[in-house]
Model the fold of this input.
Amino acid sequence: MPLSRKGLALLYYLALEGPTSRMRLADLLYGHAASLQNLRVELHRLAQALGRPPFPKGQDPLVLPPWILLLKEGQGEALGGLEAVGGLEEWVQGVRMALEAPKPCGREALLEALEGMAPPGLLVLRGRLGSGAQGVAQELARRRDLPYRPRPHSTGLVYLEPPYPEEDLETLLRGRALLVLWLLPGEEPRFFLELRARYGAERTWVVDLPPLTWAEARKAWLQGLPFSQAAGAYFLSGGQPEWLPEFLSAPKTPRRPLAQLELFARLLPKPAREALERLAQVPGFFSREVAEALEAAPHLAALERKGWLVYDPGRGYRFAQEAERRLLATALPPGERERVWERLQGLLPRGALPRPSLVLLRGRRGRERASLPPEGKGVDPLGEGWAVALLNPGENPWLAVPSLGEEALWEVRGEAWAPEDGALYLGLRSGGREGWLALGEGAFALRLRVPAGPFRLGFRGLGVVEFTLGAYRLEEGEEALWALPPEEEAQKV
Done:
């Protein structure tokens, strides 16, 4: 028995609005005196169509059961045809308007969240070089109609960045200003600790300024640019909004970001700074043995504490931001760079990235299959498809795809960009087996023969990928398809 339009409307309403009373649903669907009786009849029909009762007897309000899932992606108009059901026209139009409205990007959403702050108070923006803390402060001052002050003052919005004016601390504490502090990574300075100790928790806000996502950057700074140019600028700038324009205008020699980085490094003792520049020649993770060869081992703890390095117990040290490493690597004179590489001979690890291991099988693409929306980690949804930006070594984003219940052909289409000294890999994991394939530069179209059951697509390396995913029935044929290696050759991770 097929679902009626009213039954479908009822399920959509519960999926989008949450638990709803029977009276409210009856009024929306029927709007007359006998509406509750009509609703009981509709619930009986719904149980017949679904093959089982969707709601426990007597449940009120009605709650969508976990075994009914809402498919949020598809072709055509949202809730098509349901505007004619009962009194749902206004609700359907409201849902469509919400779906069509442009979604605020991360920085926009942050500013909207901060608009409710009122002076006096302390807002701490934690972010790396190029993160755009000053721009956030200026825009917040404009939205709150507060005078923007880049130095200590008793009123308005006061923005401060390192080095902090220690002598004006009491002036700030006696005033009625909204104090915005840019806090760089590493140890928290005394100036910040003094302020934090004086402001109560109800007057203090601490927020992070992470790099822009690829989707955010593409909508603003990188709009209209060819994929390869946009991806290169995004990756090399580390997604930092202040650095993006610099890498667009001078991708090989961005003077301002390098000057900022070198100035920040001068806060380190000279031996530690020189050790940092030598370590910047090492791509990816490195061991203490490598640091010893570069006479940098005595400074590792300080560099980690100051936020320059991070440590992974399984892999060793790496720069906190690959973009910063690449910039600092250019600061070392060519002769010293050559000496560093002489010392590194035989010390750098091999095989950190997966080896290509998918195999070629045969088949043919049949008709398209519908599928449930995937879920993932480190994979950003775009208008159509997804994007993956691997800005730092060791990142391992993945997309979990629900089962179609049978072997199928999945088509992955998109564009990829990797730095000249790097590479990108696409991985397929299903049923305990795993295989990898190198993505070339530019456009790609891959057809994957995937066993029945759920599977994961993974990404490794450095770079940016945009892609779409489509499912098709697998038919007999002679087309070359990439598939997992035989079980006895499977690569375990």
